[in-house]
Amino acid sequence: MSHSETGSSWRDARQDPTGQAPDPATTREAVLQVYGARAFSWRGIFGIHTWIALKPADADEYTRLEVIGWHLRHEGTALSLSTGEADNYWFGSRPWIIAEYCGDMAQDLIPKVMAAAETYPFARVYRVWPGPNSNSFTAYIARKVPELRLHLPPHALGKDYLDDGVVAPAPSGSGYQLNWFGLFGIVAALEEGLEINLFGLVFGIDFKGPGVKLPGLGLIGRDRGPRC
User: How far apart are the C-alpha atoms of 91 and 16, rounded to whole Å?
Assistant: First the structure.
């Protein structure tokens, strides 16, 4: 599901656009996309990095929302809001589209996503494992905006790190989950199917796909993310 062109260090790893996002110069309608790419270096064996890219109607560029560990060290917040390209290689790893929304639906979702990002409670905390990390952020947005019906892949480590308590809606909003600090838990939902979290590693069955979910490998089966 991804292709890696990682250099000897993050400085020379490939980061150019992949051409998957509609060109704002010719696509005037609103676009909202959720991307995933293998994490840099050895972390990519186990997990991915996710982010959200959005463009309101008639906007000339994308806004990219994500959480980045080094951003916390240099900027005092892990939450990054940048403008420009939506679909760059993530330090050598080619991203794929997890979900995509266009037109009126995207235009309706964009302000809700932006408002949710402003309330993210872990902007000054970042842990690769078990979270909160980039996937914790994307899952938080999904829970706050259930209209996204976002089904994050199982190797989005940190997606089950909850912001409040041990019980919450599943990221897709189609069921519920029980989790303890991202380490142990279970998800039962129409979109996610059944997932079991052991030390942050997710095993499960996607009944709608259908497919099997395995640590490090992700979903083995049909990708069912929303598309335009």
Answer: 9
List of residues 6+ apart from 228 with CB closer than 8 A: 31, 100, 101, 102, 103
154-188: pLDDT as tens digits: 999 999 999 988 999 999 999 999 999 999 999 99
Token pair listed for 43: 């972390």
Cα distance between residue 27 and residue 21, in whole Å: 10
Cβ proximity of 19 and 88 under 8 Å: no
Pairwise CA distance, residues 182 & 57, whole Å: 36
Q: Which of 34, 44, 35 is nearest to 10 (CA)?
A: 44
Query: pTM higher than 0.90 for the full model?
Result: yes
The CA distance from 228 to 223, in Å, is 14
**How far is the C-alpha of 47 from the C-alpha of 37, rounded, in Å?**
9
Instruction: Return d(Cα 134, Cα 49) in angstroms, integer.
Output: 6
